[in-house]
Write a structure and sequence with these properties.
Elements lengths: L6 E5 L4 H12 L3 E6 L2 H14 L4 E5 L5 H14 L5 E4 L14 H28 L4 E5 L3 H4 L5 H21 L5 E7 L5 H4 L3 H8 L10 H12 L10 E4 L6
Parallel strand pairs: 1-2, 1-4, 2-3, 4-5, 5-6, 6-7
Helix pairs in contact: 1-2, 1-9, 3-4, 4-6
Bound molecules: 1,4-dihydronicotinamide adenine dinucleotide (NAI).
Length: about 250
């Protein structure tokens, strides 16, 4: 129960990797605020976790790209749960397409969610994180932010930007002993990757030394490690959890 009484915020927790991260913290005693765009998805994700870990999880439905909405929810979380100790920026979207055909709104949606969303949440939760002890910020980037990918210029730029943001705030907040790290998942089995055709999945697996997609728990375990006291001396790093794909 190493996160007993810790207050954890996880964005994009309505399903997939985010829900698994929320569950992992709940299983170790934390009180978790699950943020996601739709009331129904984060509500049912929190309900599901509460079945196993009663009273651990509360849902907050907002669009993290909306600066004011994030400020408001931060006040609500402070009032309802208390001062936040751990922030996990996991919400992310894709709008894939070759640059030649990419629409301005595809660019804006991806950058606004994946990059500005993290700016919004860090701004909103910065004060309690700086005041607390052993506070953590963990950003879920992507291997695509490290190596690029044809058809994902918007997504690659957003995740590379998130990595730069991670390193900058790691330096800014180090004086307050807040660590800030990024995780770069490779291909993980979720609804996001479920949309890929089978032949594409097989081609990807051919490039992964461990020869399979990862599971959501592979990411959740890495997040809880980085959030734990054992990781107190790690900051400004990008940890690829990708079956060796980008070694
Ligand atoms: P998903 O699509 O299954 O879930 C994303 C969650 O984020 C949903 O709950 C959705 O409601 C929420 N969300 C999206 N936009 C939002 C917004 N504007 N405001 C609030 N919530 C919002 O995604 P998945 O696969 O679980 O991925 C989670 C994170 O991991 C994303 O940042 C993704 O880019 C990253 N990632 C995923 C990989 C994969 O293979 N699945 C690989 C590398 C990175």
């Amino acid at each position: 129960m190493q996160f007993k009484d810790k207050i954890v915020v996880v964005t994009g927790a309505g399903r997939g990797i985010g829900q698994e991260i929320a569950r992992a913290f709940a299983s170790q005693g934390a009180k978790v605020a699950l943020i996601s765009r739709s009331e129904s998805s984060c509500g049912s994700a929190a309900e599901d976790i509460n079945k196993t870990f009663p009273g651990s999880s509360t849902a907050y439905a907002i669009d993290i790209a909306n600066h004011d909405a994030v400020q408001d929810v931060a006040k609500k979380i402070a009032a309802e749960l208390g001062a936040v100790n751990i922030l996990v920026n996991n919400a992310g979207v894709t709008r894939d397409g070759l640059l030649m055909r990419m629409k301005e709104e595809d660019w804006d949606t991806v950058l606004d969610t994946n990059l500005k969303g993290a700016f919004n949440t860090v701004k909103a939760f910065m004060r309690p994180l700086m005041k607390g002890e052993n506070s953590r910020i963990i950003n879920i980037a992507s291997v695509i932010g490290l190596i690029g990918n044809a058809g994902q210029a918007n997504y690659s730029a957003s995740k590379a930007g998130l990595i730069g943001f991670t390193k900058a705030i790691a330096r800014e907040l180090a004086g307050r002993a807040v660590t800030c790290n990024a995780i770069a998942p490779g291909f993980i089995t979720t609804d996001m990757t479920g949309e890929l055709p089978d032949n594409v999945k097989e081609a990807i697996i051919g490039k992964i030394p461990l020869a399979s997609f990862g599971n959501t728990s592979d990411i959740a375990e890495t997040v809880t490690f980085l959030a734990s006291p054992a990781a107190r001396y790690i900051t400004g790093q990008v940890l690829a959890v990708d079956g060796g794909m980008t070694m």
